[in-house]
Amino acid sequence: MRKLIIEIPTEELGKMGIKLPQLETIRSIKFHYFLRQDEEEFRAVSEIEFKDPTAEVEDLISRDFLIEAKLLGREKNGARIVMMRSGPVLSKVLQLVGMNCGHLFPPLEITDGKIKICFIGSEEEVKEFLEKVNGAKIGHRVVSLGDADFSPTSPLNQLTEKQREILVIAHKLGYYEVPRKINTEALAERTGLVVSTVDEHLRKAEQRLMTYLLGH
Length: 216
What we know:
Elements: E1 2-9, H1 11-15, E2 26-37, E3 42-50, E4 68-74, E5 80-86, H2 88-96, E6 103-104, E7 108-111, E8 114-121, H3 123-135, E9 141-147, H4 161-172, H5 184-191, H6 195-214
Antiparallel strand pairs: 1-8, 1-9, 2-3, 2-7, 3-5, 4-5, 6-8, 7-8
Helix pairs in contact: 4-6, 5-6
């Protein structure tokens, strides 16, 4: 798998017809954990620093941005830890910048008027993503491009590259949703593998993750 990090000035959103006035009240926002990301919903845990320290996270809620913002805690610097949930609006924003292939992955942050996006996928998916960004004439800077690597303490580091790839695709397409949005047959078709191979990769990946998590 490959990992691409690009930086996009926030004003480029306006060029695409995207208006998120709530961002004007935010000094910085960093998404730490992605809980769900598909065409129906985007949900994540983020760290938000407001320009006005008295601002409330509920002020972010609107049909054009978020449908839920729940305060989970506060950092010493005043930043809020927030569970954010958006309907299809934010997903459409991601699709506009070509984020309907591959997988969004931390770090994702908006600070100093710039959006930093991390994209993980196959060589072909990374190429397709960059082609869509260039085709949409979105001003951007490639921060880095290389093989996807993970922290030594990350559970994903316990998997083989192929296991990570299949697991990421399965998660993105809703294999682990309840009810499931895709089965192993459809996953096999999307990945170009036979069903038994996909099933084996998922089973071994799940077993390794459970062994790692339960052993720590």
